[in-house]
Automatic annotation (TrEMBL):
Signal peptide: none annotated. It comes from Mohoua ochrocephala. SMART domains: LRR_SD22 (SM00365). Gene3D superfamilies: Ribonuclease Inhibitor (3.80.10.10). InterPro entries: Leu-rich_rpt, Leu-rich_rpt_4, LRR_dom_sf, SDS22/Internalin_LRR. The keyword Repeat applies. It comes from the Eukaryota. PANTHER family: LEUCINE-RICH REPEAT AND IQ DOMAIN-CONTAINING PROTEIN 1-RELATED, LEUCINE-RICH REPEAT-CONTAINING PROTEIN 9. SUPFAM superfamilies: Outer arm dynein light chain 1 (SSF52075). This is PPR42 phosphatase. CDD domains: PPP1R42 (cd21340). The lineage of its organism: Eukaryota, Metazoa, Chordata, Craniata, Vertebrata. Keywords: Leucine-rich repeat, Repeat. The gene is Ppp1r42.
Length: 147
């Protein structure tokens, strides 16, 4: 089990602790973070990454969208090819423009009514049970039509 935490960011970013910039300051400056294909199964506390705009978490083992309440500045979220079965916990992502969820286990597209800036939703190639089709919640569908 690999949890996405600031420790994992430190390990993968190769941050050298320079005297003029401690790791906390470094985290606050990050705008793009690529942690794809790292066997991550859950998203931990990333609240120090206040300026994060683009988050790449594709090709992992993530089961649930969580702990993104801090991420009000995220514009692009890449979560394709994980184990996500429901779209949830996105209401704080007020600036989210592009959401990539292809290759997951989502059966119902819902929970997008609070994501007012969403311009692109990529939800192709879901691993659906035999005979089932991808369903769209009318409230989410209407909000996507407006945005």
């Amino acid at each position: 089990m690999v949890r996405l935490t600031t420790d994992l960011i430190a390990k993968n970013a190769g941050h050298k602790n320079r005297s003029e910039e401690d790791f906390g300051q470094y985290l606050q400056k990050i705008t793009h973070l690529n942690l794809s294909d790292k066997n991550i199964d859950s998203i931990g506390d990333l609240s120090f990454c206040k300026n994060l705009r683009v988050l790449y978490l594709y090709d992992n083992q993530i089961n649930q969208i969580q702990n993104l309440d801090f991420a009000s500045n995220i514009t692009h979220l890449y979560l394709q090819n994980n184990h996500i079965s429901s779209i949830e916990n996105l209401s704080s992502l007020k600036k989210l423009e592009k959401l990539y969820l292809g290759g997951n286990y989502i059966t119902v597209v819902e929970g997008l009514d609070k994501v007012g800036e969403l311009r692109e939703l990529h939800i192709e190639s879901q691993h659906l049970p035999l005979g089932e089709k991808l369903l769209f919640d009318p409230v989410s569908l209407n909000s996507l039509a407006v945005s």
